[in-house]
Write a structure and sequence with these properties.
The chain is of the alpha/beta class. The chain folds into two domains: 179 residues, Rossmann fold (3-Layer(aba) Sandwich), CATH 3.40.50.1980; 127 residues, Nitrogenase molybdenum iron protein domain (Rossmann fold). It is 32% helix and 10% strand. It is built from eleven helices and ten strands. The protein has a four-stranded parallel sheet with strand order 4-3-5-6, with helices on both faces. The protein starts with 16 loop residues before the first helix and ends with a helix. The relative contact order is 0.16.
Length: 319
């Protein structure tokens, strides 16, 4: 039985469900460097399944390699993306209702946030991958003899590499996982080259009540790779990583760029401009308010896509 305890932020009861989803699915904070390393050289923590032979004696005892999972249920949108990216998609029989990528993932009505043990067991899985346990999920699955892998929210970029390597080892796709990590490292380094956002400030809006994510969070570290300065950092007095900013503060600081992680809920450059006083902000006046897609809440292979989006916005604003 392999179980990982997620490093999700504390005080989840303080905020709306949208923050619960983001915190449980990819935006943990810690006390490390704001940017974090791009290289994933030390992150491969899971070895490939092997066959071990005892030292030569009069008799030899061979320990069989553990069986690879043939029926995986993923209740983590990020894990789903990783599994398909490393070539393990054929072993996945069902994914949760938030696993919107890739399109060939077998989406179901299963929920990763309000999971039902009986419904999960109905797919007869030999491995369930989760990012969040509401309290009784692991215990319930264990009681049915189902293995569980819990991969919690990433705090640093190296956590992404580690989780990719771990899933590669467990599914028999070690080489593919290593190749994926190498590609991500190279692409992030290329995007960060020259820190094109140096000298520019930004506001990352999680929801319309103005919760944000500081540079200590996973997303903040990605922004920092480009040299961008986060206006939420000075407001995070308790070090939680997800302060709620006041409209007056955002207007007064007047960030160069505004990124909308709540765009999928109808927030847009137009609705931002309609807020009292926001039409005076330079980002609004100069058209530097940018919607984000679901990659802003995931820490798997598409962190590259997220950073491509942010870099394109930086270049547009700079041009």
């Amino acid at each position: 039985m392999r179980i990982r305890i997620p490093r999700t932020p504390h005080r989840l009861g303080r905020i709306a469900v949208v923050l619960l989803i983001l915190a449980a699915a990819g935006c943990g904070g810690d006390d490390g460097s704001a940017t974090g390393p791009v290289s994933g050289e030390t992150a491969t923590t899971t070895a490939a399944p092997t066959t071990t032979t005892a030292a030569p004696t009069t008799t030899s005892t061979e320990v069989p390699a553990p069986a690879l999972p043939e029926s995986i249920v993923s209740l983590s949108a990020t894990a789903t993306e990783i599994l398909f990216a490393i070539g393990a998609g054929g072993q996945v029989v069902a994914v949760d209702d938030q696993s919107t990528y890739p399109v060939e993932a077998p989406m179901s009505a299963l929920s990763g946030f309000t999971p039902n043990v009986e419904s999960i067991a109905g797919y007869d899985p030999d491995l369930v991958v989760i990012s969040y346990d509401p309290g009784d999920l692991v215990v319930g699955l264990e009681a049915l003899g189902i293995d569980v892998l819990m991969q919690g929210a990433a705090n640093a970029i190296d956590d992404t590499y580690a989780q990719i390597a771990e899933l590669g080892g467990l599914t028999g796709h070690v080489d593919e996982a290593a190749a994926l990590n190498t590609a991500i490292v190279a692409e992030l380094e290329a995007l960060a080259e020259g820190q094109p956002g140096a000298g520019m400030t930004y506001f990352h809006e999680i929801d319309s009540t103005l919760y944000s994510a500081t540079s200590s969070t996973f997303l903040g570290r990605l922004y920092a790779l480009l040299g961008l300065e986060n206006i939420a950092d000075p407001t995070d007095e308790d070090g939680w990583g997800y302060p709620q900013l006041s409209p007056e503060y955002v207007i007064d600081v007047d960030p160069d760029l505004i990124f909308l992680a709540d765009a999928e809920w109808g927030v847009s450059a137009e609705t931002v401009a309609a807020r009292p006083g926001w039409d005076t902000m330079s980002a609004v006046q100069e058209g530097n308010v940018f919607p984000l897609d679901e990659t802003a809440g995931r820490w798997g292979p598409r962190i590259v896509d997220f950073l491509i989006t942010v870099r394109a916005a930086v270049e547009e604003a700079s041009g």
